[in-house]
């Protein structure tokens, strides 16, 4: 796994970000990305601990990407935050490399010693690794502009095909059939992202407008494949169908440590329907730094219990 760390450092569009690469027996099992501010706000472990446990992670490597020039003072400030992060490492998890990276250079932090200084070490960019990161687990790991672009609607010709397919759906389709279509599409993507056809996208987007189906999908947000399923479906959604799938994409992304993607998806949901209650609720939760574990314990589990009641 250590060979991947210098390569990720060569991706120059990462800025003001914190990337965590978790491994099990040397193999990557989880890549999470959040705003660098999570480091100073002491929110890193809160946001990813459950995902790390679920992935069976044994070791986690941390790479900080500050915005702007990396001066000795910047490194000193980051080092203090990274030392605190190391002190709070969850039990059973080993902290691996702790690195600052920027503009193709890196600085290795010894969290038991003093801060690094100087010009750092040049690292080599590898396009294949950059590409792999962009599609890792179906979630873009590119610049914020690229992430926003990944959630935007597809060209009008494709949206028109999806709209036509929605119009062609039976007007009297039962909720049970809608639920079946959504679950089938989700299950098909359990192992890897798959392209959407206009007809499949149409049936799922229409199914998600049923609040009971949408809420059931919210409760599945812990499943990693929901992240790439909803985030790749979102660009296919005509305007009236955006809010449910965008909100689901945000829930699943946030539950797996991808807070930047979560906010991008929420912005799309609220742009399409500023009064959509579930999107407004999740945005408020993010604004007050409610952790994924808080959402899981206080919202998802109680809701699941109520759904299971006769």
Structural write-up:
By secondary structure, the chain is an alpha+beta fold. The protein folds into 2 domains: about 5-135, Cytidine Deaminase, domain 2 (3-Layer(aba) Sandwich), CATH 3.40.140; about 150-310, no CATH class. The chain has helices at about 5-10, 35-40, 45-55, 70-85, 125-135, 145-150, 155-165, 175-190, 200-205, 210-220, 225-235, 240-255, 260-270, 275-285, 290-310, and strands at about 15-25, 25-35, 60-65, 95-100, 105-110, 120. It has a 6-stranded mixed β-sheet. A hairpin with a 2-residue loop joins strand 4 (about 95-100) and strand 5 (about 105-110). Helix 6 (about 145-150) crosses helix 13 (about 260-270). It starts with a helix and ends with a helix.
List the topology elements.
Blueprint: H1 4-9, E1 17-24, E2 27-35, H2 37-40, H3 44-55, E3 59-65, H4 72-87, E4 94-102, E5 105-108, E6 121-122, H5 127-135, H6 144-151, H7 156-167, H8 175-188, H9 198-207, H10 211-218, H11 225-233, H12 242-255, H13 259-272, H14 277-287, H15 292-308
Parallel strand pairs: 3-4
Antiparallel strand pairs: 1-2, 1-3, 4-5, 5-6
Q: What is the structure about, briefly put?
A:
It holds the Pfam family DUF4192. The chain is of the alpha+beta class.
Task: Give the proportion of residues in helices.
Answer: 40-55%
Cα end-to-end separation: 48 Å
Shape: elongated
Radius of gyration: 20 Å
User: Major β-sheet, in short?
Assistant: 6 strands, mixed
Individual helix count: 15
Report strand %. 5-15%
- Element-level helix/strand string: HEEHHEHEEEHHHHHHHHHHH
Structural class: alpha+beta
| Number of individual domains | 2
Given as residue ranges, the uncertain stretches (5+ residues, pLDDT < 50) are 126-140
Oligomer: single chain
| Annotation, overall tally of beta strands | 6
């Amino acid at each position: 796994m250590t060979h991947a760390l210098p390569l990720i450092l060569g991706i120059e569009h990462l800025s003001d970000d914190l990337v965590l690469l978790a491994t099990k027996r040397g193999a990557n099992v989880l890549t999470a990305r959040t705003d660098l501010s999570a480091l100073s706000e002491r929110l890193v472990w809160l946001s990813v601990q459950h995902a790390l446990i679920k992935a069976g992670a044994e070791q986690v490597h941390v790479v900080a990407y500050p915005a702007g020039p990396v001066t000795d003072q910047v490194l000193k400030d980051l080092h203090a935050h990274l030392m605190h992060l190391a002190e709070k490492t969850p039990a059973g998890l080993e902290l691996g490399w702790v690195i600052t990276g920027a503009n193709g250079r890196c600085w290795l932090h010894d969290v038991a010693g003093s801060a690094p200084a100087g010009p750092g070490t040049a690292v080599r960019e590898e396009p294949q690794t950059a590409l792999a990161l962009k599609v890792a687990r179906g979630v873009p790991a590119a610049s914020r502009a690229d992430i926003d672009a990944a959630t935007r609607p597809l060209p009008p010709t494709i949206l028109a095909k999806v709209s036509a397919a929605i119009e062609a759906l039976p007007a009297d389709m039962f909720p049970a059939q809608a639920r079946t279509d959504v679950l089938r599409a989700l299950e098909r993507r359990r192992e890897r992202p798959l392209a959407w056809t206009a007809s499949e996208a149409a049936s799922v987007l229409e199914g998600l407008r049923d609040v009971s189906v949408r809420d059931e999908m919210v409760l599945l947000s812990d499943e990693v494949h929901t992240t790439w399923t909803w985030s790749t479906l979102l660009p296919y959604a005509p305007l009236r169908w955006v809010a449910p799938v965008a909100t689901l994409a945000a829930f699943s992304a946030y539950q797996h440590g991808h807070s930047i993607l979560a906010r991008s998806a929420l912005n799309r949901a609220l742009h399409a329907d500023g009064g959509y209650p579930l999107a407004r609720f999740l945005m408020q939760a993010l604004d007050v730094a409610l952790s994924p574990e808080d959402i899981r314990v206080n919202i998802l589990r109680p809701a699941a219990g109520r759904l299971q009641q006769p």
